[in-house]
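Methods — Computational structure assignment.
A single polypeptide chain was analysed. Its primary sequence is given first, followed by the predicted tertiary structure written as structure tokens.
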Amino acid sequence: MIFMPAKRPPIPLSRERIIEAALHIADSQGLRRLTMRRLGDALQVEAMAIYHHLPRGKEALMDALAEHVTTVHVEQRPTWQETAKAWCRAERELLREHPGVLALALTKPPKGTTLIALGEQTEQLADGGLDDAPDAVRTLRAFVYGSVAVEVQRSGWADPEVDEWIRRDERADADFERGLDALLKGLQT
């Protein structure tokens, strides 16, 4: 009697699996190489199956990817400065994990879960005693996104001649912390 290994059932397609596969393609090959067909191939499904989870197709996928890398939640800290630092550090790490979709984070207007997270951040800073929390959140976001953009640019991530890009740069870490401290001091006045 010959025993054949049991065939594994396919992993059900979900919005989360689609986003995960799309992030992998964008991060490893670049956003321009992310097509619905390539995504379908990576998921081992017909591209049309993706539309059941993202009815607006590629536009919905781009929105979902932007939301994924711009939705950060942190616990309230004892001071607004500590809360702001925790949020900025968490957002920076999330953006650095997915350089392939940084352009979307920089250009897509905040929607859905990102708007909810921004509201939470604003509320946390206001509850921590910061007078102009909405302006502070906008300023902090601009700093984080700009610093990550410079970091990714310097890293060689988008250069086709670079075999391996630098994910950790101690100088970038020091620059980020110095800039964040200066910005927080400026927001106190």
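Note: Residues 51 and 57 are 6 Å apart (CA to CA).
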